[in-house]
Write a structure and sequence with these properties.
It is a single chain. Helix 1 packs across helix 7 and helix 14 packs across helix 15. The strands form two sheets. This protein has a 20-stranded antiparallel sheet, sandwiched between helices. The protein is an alpha+beta fold and 560 residues long.
C-alpha cells in the first residue's frame, strides 16, 4: 500500500467509528457483533454493480499457521518487514496495529466497482505546453467493508485518533447515515458505519453513497446472479486467508476494457471465448504443506470446446530424480485440433498457421500430421542440471517425452528431422545408452547437441545435450516420482488431474545461471531458502467446471 494512502485511510477508520460511538451506549458496545465478519454479510452492503470482490480474514489462528514455516532467518526477515510496515504506516501517529486496530477489526472485503472515467474538466494542462495529448484515464473505484467485531475497542481507537494532527474531519448526511470525509494533505477519503457493525471506506464519496443505498434495500453484490452461490460456498481450503469472487467474468473484462481509452474494442470471437467462463471463485489457505490456492471456474458447456482428459501421471517416472522443473499433460493432438478449429474465427491466426504449414512443406514435413498428429498420449518436458558439453555455459538441459499410439508416424518424423539436420552439416550418429538405441546430432568439439530414442515401445524422448540423453536412457537411476521433493510438492494436489507444473527450489538454486538471477539480493535468497517447491495442477470433473490448484510448498520452521 502506498504510504500516502496508508496514512490516509487509518484516520478515516477512526473518524467513522467516532460516529458510531456518538450514538451508542457503553453497554451496547459491550455486546458482541453478529454477522459482521463473514463474506456474505459484507457482500450485502456492496452494490450489485461491483465487478469482483475479495474477502480477507483477520482470524489470528489462520494467519498464525504461517509461523510454522520458514527458516529462522526468513522468520526474522518477515518480522522486520512487518515492523517496518507498521512504523511507515503510523509514522506520524502513536497508533499501533496490534494494540489499536487488531482487537476490533473483523474480516475485510475489498470490492472493485466499475471505473469512473476522469471528466475533461478535471484535467489540467499547462497553457505553455501546446499540443499535449490528453488521454482520459480512469480512477480506481474501490470499496472497502470492515467488520467491527469489538465495538468498545473500536470506540477507544476512534477516541485516540481525535487528537491526531494534520487530519481534517467533516460530516455530511445521506439517507439518514453520517458520512465522514477525512482529509490529509489535500486527499479525501469517505467512510460510514452501518448498523454499528460494518465500516465502509472508499476514495470516492459516490461509492459510499451507493453502499448506503444498498444497505437501505437496493440490490447488492450478494444478490447478484451467480454471486450468492460462490459467496456461500467459496473454495474449500484449510485456514482460509482470502477468498476472491468474480460472478460475471466476461462482463468484468468487458467493462474494464470499455472504460480504458487505450484498450481496443474486443472482437466478437474474443468475446465468445470470454463467455466460456461464467464465474470464478478462488481461495488462499495454509495447511501442513504450505500456502495453497484453489480456483474454480464455472463454464458454459455449450461454448466450452476444450476436450479435457485426465493424465495417468506415469510419464513422470521416465525422468531422473535430479529433474528440477517439469511440465506434464495429456493429448497435445487434441489441443492442436481445438486450436486449428478456433483459428477459423481469427483471420490473423489462421494466416499464421498457413504460413507455418507452407514453410514446413518445403522440407517435406506436414505440421498437422508429422508434428502434432502422433502426440496423442501423455507428455512431459523436464529441465535437468548438467555442466558438460554444449550445456556447460547454461548449466542445464531439457528433455521432451511423449507417449504415442502411432510409433510409425513418430519414427518417420524423426527420420525427416535427422535428414534435415544433415543438410546443416550436423553429424548424425547412433549409440546405445542403457540398452536403448539413441540417435545423436553431434557438433565438433561440443558433443551431442540433441538426441532422441525410444524408452519403451510407446514412449519416445528428445533430449537437449548428450548428458541429458544419458540421464534419460539409463534406467538404473532413481526416478523423479520417487523423490521426496516431488512427493512433498505434488503429493497433496488433487487427483486425477490433467498434469503438473513442478519446480524444486533447492535444485533450481544449484544451477549457476539460474542462481545468478536471484543471488544479487540477500533478502531474496533468505526467503527462497524457506521454499521447498511449487506445484500446479488442473482438472475438469465435467464440461461445466474447471478447477486449478497451486501449492507453494514451504519448509517447516526448525529453530536452531
Amino acid at each position: 500500500m502506498p504510504e500516502s494512502k496508508s496514512k490516509f485511510l487509518i484516520p478515516a477508520v477512526g473518524a467513522a467509528v467516532v460516529v458510531a460511538g456518538s450514538i451508542a451506549a457503553y453497554t451496547y458496545f459491550k455486546s458482541p457483533s453478529s454477522g459482521s465478519s463473514d463474506a456474505l454479510a459484507s457482500a450485502k452492503v456492496v452494490p450489485s454493480t461491483a465487478l469482483m470482490a475479495a474477502y480477507i480474514t483477520t482470524d489470528t489462528e489462520a494467519w498464525a499457521k504461517l509461523q510454522q514455516f520458514g527458516t529462522p532467518e526468513a522468520q526474522k526477515l518477515v518480522a522486520k518487514g512487518l515492523e517496518d510496515f507498521n512504523k511507515q504506516m503510523f509514522s506520524e501517529s502513536n497508533v499501533s496495529y496490534e494494540k489499536d486496530i487488531k482487537p476490533w477489526a473483523g474480516g475485510v472485503m475489498i470490492a472493485l466497482l466499475p471505473p469512473n472515467p476522469v471528466k475533461p474538466a478535471q484535467l489540467t494542462v499547462p497553457s505553455e505546453t501546446p499540443n499535449v495529448p490528453t488521454n482520459l484515464q480512469q480512477q480506481s473505484n474501490i470499496l472497502i467493508v470492515v467488520g467491527i467485531k469489538d465495538k468498545l475497542s473500536a470506540l477507544n481507537f476512534a477516541n485516540k485518533l481525535k487528537s491526531q494532527k494534520g487530519v481534517k474531519f467533516q460530516e455530511s448526511d445521506y439517507q439518514g447515515e453520517k458520512i465522514v470525509e477525512t482529509t490529509e494533505k489535500g486527499k479525501p477519503t469517505y467512510s460510514v458505519v452501518l448498523n454499528n457493525s460494518q465500516l465502509v471506506l472508499a476514495p470516492e464519496k459516490q461509492a459510499v453513497e451507493k453502499a448506503i443505498d444498498t444497505f437501505k434495500g437496493q440490490s447488492s453484490f450478494a444478490s447478484k446472479e451467480g454471486a450468492g452461490t460462490i459467496l456461500s460456498k467459496g473454495v474449500d481450503v484449510k485456514n482460509s486467508l482470502a477468498q476472491i469472487y468474480i460472478p460475471d467474468y466476461a462482463g468484468m473484462v468487458q467493462q474494464l476494457i470499455a472504460a480504458s481509452p487505450q484498450a481496443k474494442q474486443l472482437p466478437p470471437q474474443t468475446l465468445t471465448q470470454l463467455k466460456q467462463i461464467k464465474s470464478v471463485v478462488a481461495g488462499v489457505g495454509v495447511d501442513d504443506a504450505g500456502v495453497r490456492v484453489k480456483a474454480i471456474a464455472n463454464l458454459d458447456p455449450q461454448l466450452n470446446k476444450f476436450q479435457y482428459q485426465s493424465s495417468p501421471g506415469n510419464i513422470v517416472g521416465q525422468f531422473p530424480i535430479d529433474t528440477f522443473a517439469l511440465i506434464s499433460g495429456n493429448g497435445i493432438s487434441r489441443g492442436w485440433t481445438t486450436v486449428v478449429e478456433q483459428s477459423k474465427d481469427y483471420p490473423e491466426m489462421k494466416q499464421a498457421l498457413e504460413q507455418v504449414r507452407g514453410q514446413l512443406k518445403f522440407v517435406n514435413i506436414d505440421l498437422d500430421k508429422d508434428i502434432f498428429g502422433w502426440m496423442n498420449g501423455e507428455f512431459a518436458f523436464g529441465a535437468i542440471p548438467s555442466n558438460q558439453g554444449v550445456l556447460a555455459s547454461v548449466g542445464f538441459g531439457g528433455a521432451l517425452v511423449f507417449d504415442t499410439s502411432d510409433r510409425k508416424t513418430a519414427e518417420a518424423t524423426l527420420t525427416k528431422l535427422d535428414s534435415l539436420a544433415k543438410t546443416q552439416q550436423i553429424n548424425i550418429a547412433n549409440r546405445s545408452i542403457g540398452g536403448k538405441d539413441v540417435t545423436e546430432w553431434q557438433i565438433p568439439r561440443q558433443g551431442a547437441l540433441l538426441a532422441h530414442g525410444w524408452l519403451d515401445q510407446d514412449t519416445v524422448f528428445v533430449a537437449v545435450g548428450g548428458p541429458i540423453a544419458e540421464a534419460m536412457g539409463d534406467g538404473k537411476n532413481t526416478s523423479l516420482d520417487n523423490s521426496d521433493a516431488f512427493k512433498a510438492v505434488t503429493g497433496s494436489l488433487q487427483k486425477p488431474n490433467g498434469g503438473y507444473f513442478y519446480l524444486d527450489m533447492d535444485k533450481t538454486k544449484t544451477v549457476p545461471m539460474l542462481n545468478s538471477l536471484i543471488s544479487s539480493n540477500p533478502d531474496t535468497i533468505t526467503i527462497l531458502g524457506s521454499i521447498r517447491g511449487f506445484g500446479v495442477t488442473a482438472t475438469s470433473p465435467d464440461k461445466s467446471t474447471s478447477e486449478l490448484e497451486m501449492l507453494l510448498a514451504l519448509k517447516p520452521n526448525t529453530p536452531k
